[in-house]
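Before we proceed, please read the two lines closing this message. Let me know whether the structure tokens fit the sequence:

…
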Amino acid sequence: MIVLFNILIFFLLDLLLFFLFKNWVFSFLLIYFLLFIFTKKQENIGLNYLFILLFLIQDYLNYGIVGPCLFYVVPIIFAQEKLKSMFSTESKIFFIPFLAIILIFKAFFVEFLVLQKNMPILSTFFIIFTNIIVGSLILLGTRGNRS
């Protein structure tokens, strides 16, 4: 129940910031999806479908078409079991580079090559860097109190 609440909060936060900035600058739902898929136990596979549905809604709002998120969400789901051992360490050192790879793939392959969206390179790197910082902060928040 808490996971479902977190999913909806991150989606609504993404949606609010999308309407505020008129561009999809932050990817809170993608960051939480990566944390959920690689660090939580998968007792409810239906939440993956909820994530995909919310990503499709985000695509429709951002691009006007449904489906570009499937280029990077579906491979993450399929590679989940193979990569879970890499993310099971206590340090979570692989989360930030993996998030950077996903964001770069999203920006340069999905938006630039597939959707033919013209985007300034500086703003693209700003969006990637901002999301990496936000992902680091969310990762720190999920570790809990260690004392």
